[in-house]
Amino acid sequence: MSYMSQEGYDRLVAELKQLESVERPKASAAIAEAADKGDLSENSEYDAAKEAQRHLEAKINEMKLTIAQAKIVDMSRLSDEAVQIMSTVEMTNMANNSKMKYTIVSETEANLKQGKISIHTPIAQGLLNKKVGDVVEIKIPRGTIKLRVDKISINL
């Protein structure tokens, strides 16, 4: 099961619709065009088009599975008492006093440029169920980081 916001779910459904209604016909047309060029045993264009279609179908199937297993989070029922999925957490790195702010989201909604990290990342896992004022040590690929939770909010 994958927890996500309504916005993330709607975006995923729209992307799936685009892949099925636009990209799939393009892939089929590319295969047909390559097949018209003759001998398929030595037709690298045909092989490439078939490979692209396989990747597209795999992506479509993966997205369908994610959508089927999605659980929309009722944002109105979330609390800012402790860190959970959909929480925006402001924290301080205790080693250098730098401030960080992340929103914890589902894997499909993660986007570091937007400050959204997957619930499966070490930082998100280490922050889950922590409260304002808690200091937590989290093992990350480059070692251990010590963070203090300064503020928890839910952006509806």
From TrEMBL:
Highest taxon of source: Bacteria
Presence of the UniProt keyword DNA-binding in the record: yes
Domain Transcription elongation factor GreA/GreB N-terminal stretches: 3-72
Annotated Transcription elongation factor GreA/GreB C-terminal domain residues: 80-153
Keywords per UniProt: DNA-binding, Elongation factor, Protein biosynthesis, Transcription, Transcription regulation
GO function terms (MF aspect): DNA binding; RNA polymerase binding; translation elongation factor activity
Keyword match Transcription regulation: yes
InterPro entries to which the protein is assigned, alphabetical: GreA/GreB_C_sf, Tscrpt_elong_fac_GreA, Tscrpt_elong_fac_GreA/B, Tscrpt_elong_fac_GreA/B_C, Tscrpt_elong_fac_GreA/B_fam, Tscrpt_elong_fac_GreA/B_N, Tscrpt_elong_fac_GreA/B_N_sf
Gene Ontology terms: biological process: DNA-templated transcription elongation; regulation of DNA-templated transcription elongation
Pfam family, one: GreA_GreB
Role of this protein: Necessary for efficient RNA polymerase transcription elongation past template-encoded arresting sites. The arresting sites in DNA have the property of trapping a certain fraction of elongating RNA polymerases that pass through, resulting in locked ternary complexes. Cleavage of the nascent transcript by cleavage factors such as GreA or GreB allows the resumption of elongation from the new 3'terminus. GreA releases sequences of 2 to 3 nucleotides.
Family: Belongs to the GreA/GreB family.
Protein name: Transcription elongation factor GreA
Gene giving rise to this polypeptide: greA
